[in-house]
Model the fold of this input.
Amino acid sequence: MTVTDARSGQPIRKGRLGRVGYSIACLGWRGALAELAKRPDSPETDAEFDAMHGTNTAGSVEPADLGIRDADTVRKAIRYLPSPLRVTSWMLNEIGVDPARCSFVDIGCGKGRVLLVAAERPFRHIAGVEISTELADIARLNTQRYRPASSRVGAIAVSNSDARDFEMPSGDLLIHMYHPFDPAISAAVFARLATSADARPRRVSVAYLTYTHSVPAVAEMFSAIGWLRLVRYEESISGRYNWLFYDGSTPG
Done:
């Protein structure tokens, strides 16, 4: 199915009815009705997940407060926000990968909520990369505090590093990104992946969550990566929870 415009290379937007249908599936009736009424939720104040699991994943953190020393990296960073549970669960149900055959990596994992949700599924490995030392420490603590405790949650690996320096797990990958930084940094991440030590071609699926206003720049960045193709685009009513699904195999 064609999901990009042949001339611009940008995702083809669905009509309003399609966006409503996706919002209901992804956010639930209550969330979709709130968006229709132009009362979108505030993920930074959503404490339901933490109340259920004894964790600390809510709140927001501005780039200037991430503890990044390099000024250019600070300018290209985007504030931390937790992904709503429903949104992450919808993605994991719809992305079309077999967890038992791949590793899950959350780039810009923040406090680790997405990692905890992913640990409910039998991924080979679950890893997060976070440049903020404070957020990485919180993410690790959340794996210890999570209720009910499980060996899968305990096996989550959180790397406190720049995503451009992170060595991906070997084998097939599902990479999650919640618009963590400027697309220029993302381009460097995927360039490194294409030339990683794992020289054999491997399947890479990408689930990229972002806002309508940032979609053109994100799509342009991915269009320059010859081995990844856009296979699905979904846009919410308010444009706050838009998914771009990419799939491909690394050069080998």
Strands lie at 103-107, 126-129, 157-159, 173-178, 203-210, 228-234, 242-249.
